[in-house]
Amino acid sequence: MKTLATKPFAQDFVFLEGPRWHDGKLWVSDMFGQTVYTLTPDGARQEIAKFPNRPSGINFLPDGSVVIISMADRKLMKVDNGTLSEYADLSAVLPYDINDCVCAANGDIYVGTFGYDVFAHEEPRPATLTLVKRDGTIETVADQVQFPNGAVITPDGKTLVVAETFVGKLTAFDIQADGSLANRRSFADIAPYTPDGICLDRDGAIWVAAFEQGEFIRVREGGEITHRIDTGGRRAVACNLGGADGKTLFCLIYDGDLDDIPKGARNALIETAQVEVAGTGSP
């Protein structure tokens, strides 16, 4: 196993999620800062939009539209020049916060949900994956998923892999022609690691942010861990591959007490590591 080091990239955020590399910039959601930003390769940031109900996963549709998760009201919101409009409302079918997501090449969006009230410290319960199609159709495509979190889709569009955070699993599904999911199976069992955000590289391996362990790890199908980044006791929240050659791993980190997040303490930051295999652009 190789150990990699990181270097500072940007700081002064509340709690970051949903990193995406798109059109030469890093997009991130400051969930508890209620703001989505882009960052240029030199770290300069621009505010894209304010989200009163906590932004998370970010999607880029084939027509160029940007659609972003609004967690607490369980909606997907379209962003146009800083203005929000409703793209899809999942509140009638999902009673708890929605979270991360992944967008297929045809614009289908797969959305995860907590499945219970995490912030009230309820007992964990299984959750679902919800498909939001371009025609507005909303349907459940997987159930009994344990806290679905980050997700990726392979370049051929045939496989979706989702992180089941609190059971330490990366779980794969075949994507059918109609967008439904079949042939559920293990991509990797990595317990006791708690996978949060994930991203896919061109060799088919997945970079995983292991939240509780404070590590970013690169995992092959079957569970082999090939690379490791230790954050030094901080939380590893999410990651994505980008940069000019796709080989910069952007690591979203939280450095502080979790109880300080709702208070707005600005303890979140981004560091980068240089890796050997470029990303696929998923998520």
Overview of the structural elements:
With 283 residues, this protein is mainly β. The chain has one domain (2-274): Neuraminidase (6 Propeller). The chain is 0% helix and 54% strand. The chain is built from no helices and 25 strands. The chain has strands at residues 2-3, 7-13, 16-22, 25-30, 35-39, 45-50, 55-60, 66-70, 75-80, 83-89, 98-103, 109-113, 127-132, 138-145, 148-153, 159-164, 169-175, 181-189, 195-200, 206-210, 215-219, 225-230, 235-242, 248-254, 268-274. The strands form six sheets. Strands 1-22-21-20-19 form a five-stranded mixed β-sheet, with no helix packed on it. Strands 2-25-24-23 form a four-stranded antiparallel β-sheet, with no helix packed on it. A four-stranded antiparallel β-sheet has the order 3-4-5-6, with no helix packed on it. It is globular, with a radius of gyration of 17 Å.
Blueprint (SSEs and pairs):
Elements lengths: L1 E2 L3 E7 L2 E7 L2 E6 L4 E5 L5 E6 L4 E6 L5 E5 L4 E6 L2 E7 L8 E6 L5 E5 L13 E6 L5 E8 L2 E6 L5 E6 L4 E7 L5 E9 L5 E6 L5 E5 L4 E5 L5 E6 L4 E8 L5 E7 L13 E7 L9
Parallel strand pairs: 1-22
Antiparallel strand pairs: 2-25, 3-4, 4-5, 5-6, 7-8, 8-9, 9-10, 11-12, 12-13, 13-14, 15-16, 16-17, 17-18, 19-20, 20-21, 21-22, 23-24, 24-25
Q: Report the sheet with the most strands, covering strand number, pairing sense and barrel closure.
A: 5 strands, mixed
Overall geometry: globular
What share of the residues does DSSP label as strand, in percent? over 45%
- Please report the distance between the alpha carbons of the first and last residues: 25 Å
Could you state the order of secondary-structure elements as H and E?
EEEEEEEEEEEEEEEEEEEEEEEEE
Put simply, the count of helices is: 0
Overall mean confidence score, pLDDT: 97
Strand order in the largest sheet: 1-22-21-20-19
CATH topology: Neuraminidase
Helix-strand category: mainly beta
Poorly predicted runs are: none
Let me know the number of strands: 25
